[in-house]
């Protein structure tokens, strides 16, 4: 990870809990399409900073760490939602 920028450990923890508890299927969709893991069976967010988001992906019976960069460096928390929505939409489009 690079410099966390505006994202403290507390903020990252809140985002991770939200993603893993409420958007687990989206995490998997993102990792299958954007992290080159089409055979993944599970994915959970493990971290993030201003430049990208980190996941642990289960694929082929093993866990792999993957990082997906944001389209630009984020400077505010509100941007995270927009970027994750963009990633989810791109992943869904790639799956069709």
Ordered list of secondary-structure elements with their pairings:
Layout (H helix, E strand, L loop, with lengths): L8 H14 L1 H11 L7 E8 L2 E8 L2 E8 L8 H18 L1
Antiparallel strand pairs: 1-2, 2-3
Helix pairs in contact: 1-2, 2-3
In a nutshell, what does this entry contain?
The protein is α+β, with helices and mostly antiparallel strands and 96 residues long. The protein is built from 3 helices and 3 strands, in the order H-H-E-E-E-H.
Q: Could you explain how this protein is built, in words?
A:
The chain has 96 residues and is of the alpha+beta class. It has a single domain (9-95), classed as Split barrel-like (Alpha-Beta Barrel). The chain has three helices and three strands. The chain has helices at residues 9-22, 24-34, 78-95; strands at residues 42-49, 52-59, 62-69. The protein has a three-stranded antiparallel beta sheet. The longest helix has 18 residues, at 78-95. The model has no long low-confidence stretch (mean pLDDT 93).
């Amino acid at each position: 990870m690079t410099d966390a920028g505006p994202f403290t450990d507390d903020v990252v923890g809140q985002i991770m809990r939200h993603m893993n508890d409420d958007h687990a299927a989206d995490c998997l969709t993102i990792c299958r399409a954007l992290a080159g893991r089409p055979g993944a069976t599970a994915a959970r967010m493990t971290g993030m900073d201003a430049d990208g988001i980190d996941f642990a992906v289960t694929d082929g019976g093993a866990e792999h760490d993957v990082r997906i960069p944001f389209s630009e460096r984020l400077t505010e928390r509100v941007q995270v939602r927009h970027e994750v929505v963009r990633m989810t939409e791109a992943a869904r489009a790639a799956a069709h």
